Amino acid sequence: MWNGWILAxxxxxxxxxxxxxxxAGVAGLAVVLVIGNRIGYGKEPMSPHNLPLxxxxxxxxxxxxxxxxxxxxxxxxxxAAQAVxxxxxxxxxxxxGWLLVER
Length: 103
Hints:
Layout: H1 5-8, H2 17-35, H3 51-71, H4 78-101
Helix pairs in contact: 3-4
């Protein structure tokens, strides 16, 4: 990952995030294929249990992402700004993908 084709494309991989996310994605897919759907999925509404805590957790995670990704550049310059923008765009793209497949 770090010295291969991803680096050749110009990607900056702070703290090995690419390898971690590939591993997490494959593991998540394997678990979903083994376990299957939740009981009652598609038959009964499954709203968040505690919406204020969900929003709080989302905010804390968002601030952590920004701080870690921009801080990994070790300076306040264009690379740090690009890390912040990419973090926002990646999260927004993930949200749009989720909304497109949600029933």
